[in-house]
Protein: Endonuclease/exonuclease/phosphatase domain-containing protein
Amino acid sequence: MPTSEYEDDEVEKVYDTIEEILQEDGRGDTNSIILGDWNSIVGDEPYQNIVGSHGLGRRNHRGQMLIDFCERNGLIVTNTWFKKPKRRIYTWKAPGDWKRHQLDYILVKHRFRNSVKDVKTLPGADIDSDHNLLVAKFRTRLKKIIGFRKRRPRWDLEKLYAQRQSVQETLEEKLGAIEGESGNAEVQWNNIKECMLDTISELVGKVEKIARKPWVTQEMMNKMEERRKWKNVNNEEGRRKYRRLRNELKRAT
Structure:
């Protein structure tokens, strides 16, 4: 991000570029993680659900620009939400160590804030920079992808048995036609498999899928209604008809 030596227009251009990228990725479906040196101070004053109370320093103008950017795009400043000692918060120190600021931030979509488990700096890390290494711990849940399994065809075995002689003769004829063809073992096997499948498809065919009938038919519904009427008839005829209807429904199921 441009430093304080640049005008605000230059900073806004960078924000506009990042927003265009976010719009391409989708505003809610993608867990975009944006991190870097923002050259801004958001401070330790909470702001809505964007900035927590564990930042560092007093918010400046560039910090407010960063907050406005987060508000437009549904982002949060993650390293202001975890209580840490100051040495784990500041990300930059001036030459001579006379001033320390929090200028680096990790931004994520508000929708995914619970996936961020910890954010802190590692001031002792040797990274050849005047900035401290900023690290975050995320917990991600990978979506289970169910692979599509192609169903094997169900051949009509009864028809195959009835026409086994014709199938055998046709298959021998087709295999004889490719007997002299060259190729490795895989090519030869594919040729044999195609001959077998073509023969079965032509002479036998697949079993037609029969649609299942509804478990409860209208006839059963009528009998259930009639059984309900006879259930409360307290005489011999009522008990006899109730038992008959109950047995008929049991057999139907």
